[in-house]
Design a protein that fits this description.
This protein is of the alpha/beta class. The protein contains twelve helices and 19 strands. The strands form four sheets. Strands 3-4-5-6-7-8-9 form a seven-stranded parallel β-sheet. Strands 11-14-17-16-15-18 form a six-stranded antiparallel β-barrel. The longest helix is centred in the middle third of the chain and has 15 residues, at 179-193. The structure holds pyridoxal-5'-phosphate.
Length: 372
């Protein structure tokens, strides 16, 4: 391994903006003629909404989705006045001023939100336009069927809302065989046919892979942009890894056979061992479920060309690797690498969703954005 001259103890999250832009183009091609929106809620899945937003804007994206008005405000500052930013949670009474101040479009999820919005915009010049989100079977946030009937018959309300998007959200898009996809598709078409003719959107990342019937005018991928795979056939998903966690080696030590390693003494050295203490733990988003015990080694990190086992319990700040066979290669400051090309396997090892892993990574790591 090359000589490491200088390093910090702080773990680094690298976000590859070239791979991000490539994934944007790849998903746009998969979505055929549909427009691309980008779902950047939760600080762009933990990767930093401002930088990610600007990179996607640079790649041509002009429609963004966030969960909360506050997220929209940050994104607006980053990307400037031109793009549409929809707030998926809709307007909530405390946030109205943010919607107006940052020109955010609420995604209306209920009659209550619709009526509150119409009241709020009464004396406002050029209020933002809105989206309507119909619940077609996920039974999460969204306008339920009985309220959809009321929207369909209340022309004054619809006019006042100044809608420019009608959307719904799939519950099982990653599973092409699931019958709920067709059910939701049918309900969405039926509901949309009773509404004004504006752009329609149904597909998240998984929905893009379901094919053209699901694309409509606009798609709204999130995880796929960040290299996450969602279907039962991940090998067919051509997105590239975007995110790696780099944890520097802070100490190398010898452990005698019979000693235990880490909290709860959950791993026992059967032979004399060499171990590396690396500087990342669960406070950095490294799942504690990746811990290796006497019963089972769960995962390995990449260290240079090698894969080395994670042993003992992952703690708040540190994780321990077995470098018995590689000691000569490992120097202080060397980087143990997690996720990246291993995002799916390591998420599975941790019994977590790849979405969940990504959103946990941003909290303490220094983020470095690379173009390569
Ligand atoms: C999160 C979200 C998306 C993006 O989903 P991915 O599976 O990450 O592509 C799209 N639409 C809605 C309503 C969402 O909540």
């Amino acid at each position: 391994m090359a000589q490491v001259r200088t390093y910090s103890s702080r773990p680094v999250l690298t976000v590859n903006l070239t791979a991000l832009a490539d994934n944007y183009k790849y998903l746009a091609a998969k979505a055929g003629g549909a427009r691309m929106g980008a779902s950047l809620k939760a600080d762009a899945y933990g990767l930093g909404a401002s930088v990610v937003g600007r990179a996607l804007y640079g790649a041509g994206c002009r429609i963004f989705f966030v969960a909360h008005a506050g997220e929209g405000k940050i994104l607006r500052t980053a990307i400037g006045p031109k793009a549409s930013i929809y707030v998926l949670s809709g307007n909530t009474p405390q946030d109205t001023a943010i919607f107006f101040g940052s020109k955010l479009k609420p995604v209306i999820n209920s009659l209550t939100q619709a009526r509150d919005w119409v009241k709020a915009i009464k004396d406002v010049n050029h209020p933002p336009r809105t989206g309507l989100h119909f619940d077609t079977g996920i039974n999460r946030l969204g306008i339920p069927p009985e309220e959809a009937d009321i929207f369909a018959s209340d022309k004054a309300l619809i006019d006042a809302l100044d809608i420019d998007l009608i959307m719904s959200h799939l519950a099982c898009a990653g599973d092409a065989e699931h019958p709920l996809n067709e059910t939701q598709l049918g309900r969405f078409k039926k509901t949309a046919s009773r509404m004004p003719m504006v752009q329609l959107s149904l597909a998240n990342t998984g929905g893009i892979y379901l094919g053209p019937k699901y694309h409509f005018k606009l798609v709204r991928p999130g995880i796929g942009l960040f290299g996450g795979k969602v279907t039962n056939t991940p090998d067919k998903e051509g997105v590239k890894p975007v995110v790696e966690l780099h944890a520097p080696v802070l100490q190398i030590k010898a452990v005698k056979a019979g000693e235990t390693i880490g909290y709860n003494a959950s791993f026992t050295a059967r032979t004399d061992m060499k171990i590396a203490i690396v500087s990342a733990g669960y406070a950095d988003g490294l799942p504690v479920n990746l811990s290796g015990s006497d019963k089972r080694i769960v995962t390995s990190a990449r260290l240079g060309k090698h894969r080395v086992d994670v042993i003992g319990r992952v703690s708040m700040d540190y994780t321990i690797l077995d470098i018995t066979n590689y000691e000569g290669f490992v120097e202080l400051g060397a980087k143990a690498v997690f996720f990246g090309q291993d995002l799916e396997t390591q998420s599975a090892h941790a019994k977590m969703l790849n979405y969940e892993v990504l959103t946990h990574l941003g909290a303490r790591c220094r983020k470095i954005y690379v173009n390569e």
